[in-house]
């Protein structure tokens, strides 16, 4: 029995793994080589603490983190759905356009058709700066077309919820673009309502009691420049009567340089409704784009065509009487032309709230504008120019008058402040 017991024990020892002592020592030394000592104690008793390497922190230091660091660490552990701090975490998705995508054709429809813009109530904005200004002012986006995802990530995340995001090729954007250097992003927006817009606070603080009325302006570049000058001068409002080019046409937007989202613009207004947009006691002044030469000619002539309503003295067609083949002579004989006082543009015309009418370069001002100026006690503002020059550009004339009005108001405010009656 003793022999059998010894054999069984020997068999059991054969089944157990044999671990050699030199293997244990090797593993221990490998772990020791991987470790970095926290302190080094020299025989002299000097103790030197070792600093952790870059990106490594002692476990004790991590455990003793400040409460602020612990709160930051906990905030990072919150699920992304609760704190959408990045574009990816917000859950936004975009589609890639495929060849022949019908969604792309809607862009050209918005660009070319004023009827579509007015019927559907949509406009097209191009460029990162213009789109950012529109979003800041409260314009509502519907669709964004972009060639690079970075352009969309630059926009506020909260403004992109519910908006269709479509990635297209830059070549397609270049084909649609009306810019010399396309910026790779376009957006279709709901047509802005001036009542619901949020204009810059700096603009509101410098608003003047001066209103601009555009009368039969047809050139997109001129209108865009006029809107830019109106925003720069601090106009309270801009009215576009029927017959003017659409303020939301791409060329007008490009020339306006963001002025559409800095000053209220009311488009397509009937002359009968213009007084509803004017403050009480507003005087309407018609810009005289002619000069002293035309005024002298009018004094020496009895012809209505020399009276100076248009600088080149070509027949003026009125909106209400275009179907009648009657010239200015017959109009004057019937008393259709109101008699307005002519005054220099630098005379004081800003005592009361003022509205300035700027006419188109081709057909001049309308009869309705002259009648409105007469009924409000306004007049004609004469900008003298060198004899032989037909007229000034409409945008230039508007800029001169608006900034002259701003100068007059500033001078009056300085006088009142000096007298102690203005605060």
UniProtKB/TrEMBL annotation:
Family: Belongs to the class IV-like SAM-binding methyltransferase superfamily. RNA methyltransferase TrmH family.
Region named Disordered: 46-90
Lineage, highest ranks first: Eukaryota, Metazoa, Chordata, Craniata, Vertebrata
GO CC list: cytoplasm
The organism's place on the tree of life at top rank: Eukaryota
Alphabetic keyword roster: Methyltransferase, rRNA processing, Transferase
Ranges of compositional bias, category Basic and acidic residues: 48-72
Boundaries of every RNA 2-O ribose methyltransferase substrate binding domain copy: 124-195
Native organism: Neophocaena asiaeorientalis asiaeorientalis (Yangtze finless porpoise)
UniProt-listed GO biological process terms: methylation; rRNA processing
GO MF assignments: RNA binding; RNA methyltransferase activity
Biased composition (Polar residues): 75-88
The keyword Transferase is assigned to this record: yes
Membrane-spanning residues: none
Name of this protein: rRNA methyltransferase 3, mitochondrial isoform X1
SUPFAM superfamilies according to UniProt: alpha/beta knot, L30e-like
